[in-house]
Amino acid sequence: MSNLKVIWSILAKDLRVEWRNRETLASMCVFGLLIIFLFNFAFETAREETLRLLPAVLWVAIAFAGVLGFNRSFASERENSCLEGMALAPVDPSLIFVGKMLANLLFLAAAEVVMAFAATLWFNFSFLPAVGELLLIAFFGTLGYAALGTIFGAVAANTRMREVMLTVLQFPVAFWILMLSIDSTSNAMRGDPGGNWIGGVARVAGISVVFTVASFLLFEYVLEE
Amino acid sequence: MIRKFPLRLHAGLTLAGLVVALYMIFLYAPEEMTMGEVQRIFYLHVSCAWTALMGFIIIFIASIAYLMKRSQPADELAHATAEVGFIFCTCVLVTGPLWAKPAWGIWWTWDARLTLTFLLWLLYVAYLMLRSYLVNPGRAANLCAVVGIIGFVDVLIDYMAIRWWRTQHPQPVILGGPESGLDPRMLATLLVSLGTFTLLFFLLVRIRLGLAGLRREFSEIRRTLAFRTSED
Amino acid sequence: MPPGNHDNKPALEVRNVTKFFGDLAAVKEVTLGLRCGDSALLYGPNGAGKTTLLRMLASLARPSSGEILFAGKNIEHDGAGAKVAIGFVSHATFLYGELTVRENLRFFGRLFGLSNLEKRIDAALEMFDMLPRENVFARDLSRGLQQRASLARAFLHDPDFVILDEPFTGLDHESVTKLENLLLRLPEQGKALLFSTHDFEQGAALATRLIALKAGSVRYNGPLNEAPFKKLGITRTSGPSGDE
User: Fold this and answer.
1) Confidence of residue C153 (pLDDT cuts 50, 70, 90)
2) Which of B219, B230, B231 is closest, CB to CB, to C23?
3) Rounded to an integer, what distance in angstroms lies between the CA atom of residue B80 and that of residue A80?
C-alpha cells in the first residue's frame, strides 16, 4: 500500500539523516545518562530506597532526553524549509506525522536501552525478571510521549522560543503518561503479585493510544499555511 | 452562540449578584466548626475552580468550531476565554494556600482539586504563551485550536487519572471535604457564589470579546486602506 | 500557442486572489490563468508580491480570499492533482544537507510515488549536469550547485507546470545558458512555464507572455511584445521599445 511506502520513506529519511551526524542520538543518551548519574550519586542508599526511586529517575531521564530529541527532529527540517518541500508532494500530512513520530519513537527507544543499561550497572538492579512487562510499559509510554512530542514539536517550530515552548506544552499534557508509566514500572520491578500487571499496562496503553490518535487527527491543521 | 443579552443588564446582574454573594459569604453562612472564619474562602475557591474548568470546556468547543468552520469569532472566543480563565485559575491557586495554612497548618497538598487545578493552570499558561510567541500571527488560530483540543483531552484524562491515583495512594481528605454534609445555608451560599462567578466570568469574556471585535474592525479598515493605496 | 497543439490539458487558474500578511496586502485581487504551452514572465520590483503569488500557486501558502483552481478544482480541497502537475523552485532549496543529491531526489521521488525512479533521477540529474556530483552531500555543494540540484528535484516528476522563482540565482554563465535552453523548449513539449527574474531582457528572451506585478496588483497580462513598457516603468535595452 502506497501510504505505508510513504511513511517508510519519511522514517528512512529521518534515520539516514540522523545516521550521518548522529548528534541527536548522542545528545539524548548523554543527557539521559547524566540525569541517572546525578540521582544515583546523590542517593547512595539501601536497595529498598533504590526500588522506590529508580522508576521515577528513569522516566524523568527519558522525559528530558525525549524533549531534546523532539526539538532536534524539527530543527533538521527547518534548515532548507524541508517541511515545505514535503508539502510540495501530494502527501497526506497525517503520513508525515506517522513517519516523524516513528522516527522520534525509535530514537527515544534507542536512548532508553542505553539508559537501562546504565541503570542496571549503577543501581545494581536487573530488569530481567519482569522484562516482558517492562518492555510493554516502555513501549506504550514512549509511544504516547513521542506522539505528543511530534505534534507539539511541529507547533513549537512556529514560535520564537522553540525549545521552551515545546517543553511548556509537553510536560503538562504528558504528565499522566509519565506518572502511570512510573507507577506501573514500580509495580513491575517490585515483582507484583499475579494478574495486576495487565491493569498497569492497560492504563498506560489506554492513555497513550488516546493521545496518539488525537495527535494523528490534528496534525494536518498544524502544517496548514 | 451570540448572546443577545444586553451588556448593561449583564453587568448589573453581576454586580447585584456579587453584593448578594458577599453578604451571604460573610454574614449569612454559618461559621464552620473546626476552621472558623477562614473557611469562608472556600466559597471563592470553589467558585473560581468551577469557572476555570468551565473556561477550558469553552476553549475546547470554540477550538473545534474554529477548525470545522474557520470562523474568526470562534477563535476570538477561545482567546478571550483563555485570558479570563487564566485569571480565575490563578485565583484558585492563590486562595488554596491562603485557606490551607491557617486551617490545617500546611501551605499546599496534592489533593485532587489542587492537582487538577495546577495542571489546568499549566495548560492555560501554555495556550497563552503560544499566542504570544508565534512568529507568524496568521497561524495563531489553527495552532491554538489544536492545543486547545489536546489540552482539553488532557483535562479529562487528568480528572480520571487523579481519581484513580487517589484510590491507590489515599490521602487524608482535607480540602475536598465539605461537600459531604453541607449545612443547607452553606449550600445556598455556595450555589449563589457559583452562579455569580459564572456571570462575572462571562461578563469579562464579553468585554474582552468587545476588544477583539474592535481590533478586527480596525484591521479591516487598515486592509481596505491597503487596497486603495496603490503606487502608480 | 504552438500550432496544432490540442489544449485538452488542465489549466491553472487564479481567481480574485488576495493574500494578507497581518494587515498588509502582498497580493491584491489577482486573476490570471496559465495553460500548457504558455511561457510567461512574472516581472515586478522588489516587494511586488511575486514570490507570494508563486508560492500560492505551488500550494505552499493559502490565499486570504479568492481561489486557485487546477483543472477546475480548488487546490485547497483537492490539492493532490495540482501538486503532481507542478514543479516549483524558490529561494529555499528544500534539500536535506545530510543526504547526497541522489538520496534527496530519491526521497522526493518516493513521496511522489514515481516508478522507474532511478532512471528518472538519472535523467533529471543529466538535465542540469549534476550526475558527476550525485553522491555529494547537499551541504557540501556551493549555492549554485544546490540551485541546480533543486532544479533537478523540481523536474524529477516531469511536471506540466513549471513554476520558478528567480531560478537563475547563483548560477554560473554556462548553467544559465543551459537552463535558458531548457526553458525555451518547454512550450513545444506541451508544458507551461511561469518564472520570475530580475533581468528583464533575459526573461523577455524566454517568454512570450508578460505578467507585470506592482504593489500586489497585476498591471499587465498579455503578449510580451505588445506590453506598454514605458507605462509599466520598464526600460528595454533591445527589442521593440513598446511605445503606446
Assistant:
1) very high
2) B219
3) 36
For range C144-162, the mean pLDDT = 94
Q: Which residues of A touch B (CB under 8 A)?
A: 148, 151, 155, 158-161, 165, 168-169, 171-173, 175-176, 179-180, 183, 203, 207, 210-211, 214-215, 218, 221-222, 224-225
CA nearest neighbour of C128 among C155, C109, C102? C155
Nearest to A180 among B134, B139, B161 (CB): B161
Chain A residues touching residue B139 (CB < 8 angstroms):
158, 225
**Tens digit of pLDDT for each residue in B85-121?**
999 999 999 988 888 888 888 888 888 888 899 999 9
Q: Does B72 touch chain C (CB under 8 A)?
A: no
Which ipTM value was assigned to this complex? 0.91
- Residue written as cell 541527536? A24
pTM above 0.80, yes or no: yes
Is pLDDT of B226 > 60?
yes
Matching residue, cell 493574500:
C19
* DSSP symbols for chain A: -HHHHHHHHHHHHHHHHHHHH-HHHHHHHHHHHHHHHHHHHHT---HHHHHHHHHHHHHHHHHHHHHHHHHHHHHHHHTTTHHHHHHTSS--HHHHHHHHHHHHHHHHHHHHHHHHHHHHHHHT---GGGHHHHHHHHHHHHHHHHHHHHHHHHHHTTBSSHHHHHHHHHHHHHHHHHHHHHHHHHHHHTT--TTHHHHHHHHHHHHHHHHHHHHHHHHHHHH--
pLDDT for the residue numbered C140: 94
CA C48 remoteness from chain centre: 16
Q: Verify whether the Cβ–Cβ distance A158 to B136 is below 8 Å.
A: yes
pLDDT in tens, B11-48: 888 888 888 888 888 877 777 767 777 778 888 888 99
Q: Do B230 and C215 touch (CB under 8 A)?
A: yes
Of residues B226 and A102, the one with the higher pLDDT is: A102
**Largest Cα–Cα distance in chain C?**
54
Within 8 A by CB and 6+ apart from A128, the residues are: none
Residues of B with Cβ-Cβ distance to A211 under 8 angstroms: 150, 153
- Name the burial class of residue A113, with classes exposed (0-12), middle (13-18) and buried (19+) by CB atoms within 10 angstroms of its CB: exposed
Say yes or no: C24 contacts chain B, CB-CB below 8 A.
yes
Q: Which residues pair with A221 in a beta bridge?
A: none
CB-based contact A6 C110, cutoff 8 Å: yes
Contact with chain B for residue C25, Cβ under 8 A:
yes
Name the DSSP class of C187. G
- With cut-offs at 50, 70 and 90, classify the pLDDT of residue A49: confident
pLDDT of residue B112: 80
Residue in chain A lying closest to C100 (CA)? A17
In the prediction, which pLDDT does C105 show? 96
